[in-house]
Amino acid sequence: MALASALMTCAAALAAPPHSAPPSSPPHPDSLEQAVKQVQHQTRGHILAADTFSRGRTQVYRIKVLKPDGKVQVMQLNSSPRSQGHPGKSGFDQGG
Question: What is the DSSP string of 28-47?
């Protein structure tokens, strides 16, 4: 009886619709200020530090944030390809 119940629970879980799709990656910021606002909005945290560095021909914004759960996270956002004047590697990288 317990085995049948367990099998029915598994079958129901498999038949359930998948969770909503993960949110699309955030837009690439054009400035350090935009990157800071984006990270603050996404994490609801307190910005501890922010700086910009170059990785090849791409500007990378590195933001250190204290999240509400008390953890510190370093996030890196590549600049907008538009602001570089050419298409290139861009993206959103979370370190931690």
Answer: PPSSHHHHHHHHHHHH--EE
**Which runs of E-coded beta strand occur in the chain?**
46-55, 58-66, 72-78, 92-94
Output the CA–CA distances (angstroms, integers) from residue 90 to 15, 23, 65, 86, in the order listed: 37, 17, 21, 11
* Tens of each residue's pLDDT in the chain, 96 residues: 554 554 444 444 445 445 444 444 457 888 999 999 999 999 999 999 999 999 888 899 999 999 999 999 999 999 876 544 444 333 445 565
State how far the Cα of 73 lies from the Cα of 77, in Å rounded to an integer.
13
Strand order in the sheet with 92-94: 46-55, 58-66, 72-78, 92-94
Residue tagged 């909503």 (tokens): 20
- Of 25, 11, 2, 42, whose CA–CA distance to 78 is shortest? 25
